[in-house]
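Annex B. Sample input.
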Amino acid sequence: MYNDKSYTVNFLGLSINDREIITYLRKTLQLKEICQKIIYQRIIHKAALEQGLIVTPEEIQSEINHLQREQRLATDSDLFVWLEAHLLTADDWKASIRDRLLQQKLAEVLFSQHTEIYFIQHQPDFERVLLYQLIVPYEQLANELFYQISEQEITFYEAAHLYDIDERRRDCCGCEGKIYRYKLKPEIADVVFNASIGELIGPVNTERGSHLFMVEEYIPSELSATVRQEILQQMFVQWIEGQLNGMLQRNNS
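Annex B, continued. Sample output.
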């Protein structure tokens, strides 16, 4: 928890002051990102005020009830322990919920009428693929695995489980799940979305290593509720980044 007057965080009985926090964020190159998010919040509050948007106590309570069910916080005691573990007060939590709901309302007001047009203009970006991926550190190893998989000496799933550099992917035998085209790098999206189902793809070399891919399913784009939210989020991010850039330009002029 923290003390508003002294700006001191109480971490498990140990005091950490605001100067220590800022110094750590600066030294670990995180301060710029935090400052950016604070300015974003100012922009959201100003725009919401101009639009006459508010979040009611009933809306906040409804979201609290939902989150308590989601986090399995059945009693007030459970909630208190959870808040303490996250260094939050009840008021902090309500304020964070209010900010999130306000952002959602603002995104709806600004862009809900434009999602269908955006989808039509960017429809290929919302095609999805059920993708399996294997990343190893060296192209030579990727070539060896490509040969072994092609000759059916080992399956793609076995190779991913044994050799992938990422523990999560090893546990999932290479499964990345259903991925939108726009979330892949263009050079990877090009080869993945032009491959046949079940075709072994690669190696493709990036800064992460040498990749092998396999596609299990292609899913056509459609304007579902999930895609609509993705579009709203994309448009909102572009808008708020533009607002920040405009502020910086005016400040420097």
